[in-house]
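Exam revision sheet. Question 4 asks you to relate a sequence to its structure. Input first:
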Amino acid sequence: MKVVTIDGPAASGKSSVSRELASRLGWSWVSTGAFYRGLAFVAQRTGTAVDDEKALVDLAVSDVWSVEKDPENTKVVFQGADVTEHIYKEEVGAAASKLSSLAGVRKSLLEAQRDMAKSDEWLIAEGRDCGTVVFPEAPLKVYLTARSEARAQRRASEQGASLEETQKAQAERDRQDATRKAAPMQVPESAHVIDTSTLSLEQVVDEVQKLAETSIGSI
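Answer key, structure tokens:
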């Protein structure tokens, strides 16, 4: 299996690290969280309740939306339009956390997530359960973490939002992700844990690249 997984909580640096590492190595990458955020966005647009498991499962496998790999960002397309910029709003993330707690929803998206690795090229997959559920046989698993205040500051800066409100929303999402019955967020077995609180993007990417070279061989 040609997959490197990078998991961790919100704003730990997963997407930035994955994107930069993929660029360096000439690999593809995907954010599995985009599937849940995309579904949450589509649910909001179609008036589907985030606790209606059956309706969400039907929506998850419908052809009104799709997720596509892209060098810059994992794209979400809804009714033919690229809506990626909208899925990273805090309210969409909160909805995504709620619907991602439903076992049926997670199961309905799993095949599409795994399909992203169906090629001869290496894939970097980032999310919250890539190393535990989506790609448990990946030869290299990384778990990024950071102090809660550092993560909130990053997210608030990215979105131009209030730090206090961001911290509050982040704490609630962390709680939901860690305590959900279906695939709770956790450190994958045999994963390399990296605290990014005081590290630059380049330093984190350098460290993960070294792990890749050591675990997978010369790249």
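Marking note for examiners. The chain has one domain: 3-212.
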